[in-house]
Structures are given as C-alpha cells and as structure tokens.
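Hi R.,

Here's the chain you asked about this morning:
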Amino acid sequence: MARNKLAIASISLSQYPGHTLDHKIRAAAQAGIAGIEIVYNDLLTYSKAQNIPIHTAAERIHTLCLETNLQVLSLAPFENYEGSTTPLKERLALAQHWLELARLLHAPYLQVPSIFTADCTRDEKTIISDLQQLADLASSNNPVVSIAYEPLSWGTNCSTWESALSIVQRVNRPNFGLCLDTFHEGTRWWGGQCFSDGSADGRGDEAAGFAEELSDAERFQPLYSLAHPWALPGEAKEFTWSKHARPFPLEVEYGAYLPVVEIARAWIVEAGFTGWVSMEVFDRNMRDGRVSPETAAKRGVEAWRKVQIEMESKSRI
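And here is the predicted structure, written out as tokens:
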C-alpha cells in the first residue's frame, strides 16, 4: 500500500468563516493527517480575528502545528504571477511577502498555479524568465522555499501536465517542480486534451514532482451552459466546476466520477512518486457550517484509504 504522507488544504476542511484556521489544524491532527497546506486567505482571516499582524499569525500557526505534530506543507495559492502585465517588480515584492510567511510557517513549498487571466503575455521567454526570478528569490534566503507549479485545467498558457513539465525543465532550478492535481488532470483528460488512452507515457521522472493533490468531481446537473446557476460571464467552465463540485476522491455519494485512481496510480505506483499526497477539495456543502472540520478531516482520511486500496487492487490485475 502506498506510503505517501497525507496532507490536506485548510480550505478543504471547511469554507465556513466561523471555522477558524486553528480549529481546522486541530481537526486535521486529531484525524491522523500528517500535513496541512495553509491557504493564504485562511491565514489572513485568522490574523484579523485575532487582531494581530499576519506575520505574527504565521508564527502562532507554526507553533500550533508543532504542538499538534502537524507539518505545514505549503502556503497556497500564489496566483496569476508568470507573464502578468503587472510590473514584475511589484509581483516579486508580493512574492517576497508570501515567502516571508512561508518561512515563518516553516512551509517547504510555495504553491503557484499557472496563470489563468486573459491579461497576460503568451511569450514563452518572458514566462520562463518570470518563473526563474521567482525561484531565485525563493532560494535567496534560508531556508530555501521550493516552488510547486500547478497546471490549472483552465490555465491561459499552461493547462496540462505535459506543458507544465516542459516549463519545469526550461526553468531549470532545483527548487522549481510540479504540483499535480487529479481534478485538473481528469477534467483535461475528459476534454480530450491531456491523455489519449489513459496511459501515463511520457510523464517525466519522479524528480520533477513535489506534491500530488487529490480531488474528484461531480457531473454538472443540469449540463453546463451559460444559463447554469453556477455560471459567471467570462469564467471558464472548469473554474466554475472546480469551485462548486469537487468532493473527496471516490465519494460517489456526492457524485464523484473521475478516474482518480487511474491518475493517482500512474504517478504514485508506476512513476514511483514518494512525496506528499494532499487532499484539495471544494465542496459547496462546506460553506454554511453544517460540515465540521472534524467531519471533513475524517472524510479526507477515508478517501485516501479507499484510493490506496483501489491502487493496490489494480496493481494485482
């Protein structure tokens, strides 16, 4: 059975404002989860609730994680960076702020999703240069923070693992690698853009990856159109899908149907990935406070158990 350490994103433990970050951390630890991805907005909300600067909040959260034996895996998500039309100096200054917080949290990774705004350059040299400068900034102080680059299925310039792997190779920095998400891989796969036959040929080597995030998806009911109640003008269908209908893996009772096991198996079993596995879900039922962080944490642990069993079962076939 896969021995990857299990983490969970703080937002995946509840999207209800009354469920504070410290509550989520204790719930994750009590469920036996080993790590947590700190979502910036959760940290910001906690700092405001405590009436303390966000840097102080980061220090307190690190202390709490030490007390509960929970590893902070990453600070996330540093969005819309590479190729943005905002002056690079301003983007790097913002990155420096995030990196300071990551170091206070003792987070080894800064998670960076691929840019998804239309207001950006398509010039590959500029994109690679921007990411190299980010990686260099992240390695300019100790401890070095690694950049976990995640291809979003609705990304403007990078939306598949193949394109993300190519970017990682061209950035060519030891602290710059992949963060792969089964939701993004699965939704691109289903759209015929990522895998042709479900195989993992050409996926690159394990060294390119820092983390694997697991989530599932439910089907649009009714079928997606601009008249769908979730649809927003100008928003990509995959983004809408992601925000509202991403349950934990294999939660068929919540409509889960993506081939999460096949995708996870390609990386964890076939490619031999031994790094962190993290649950990153966006369940719309977690917004009103009826689902406690304790319940969400248990669901995450159970989902990982089911994925492990299914991967092992398929390996015997």
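One quick note: The chain has ten helices and ten strands.

Cheers,
M.
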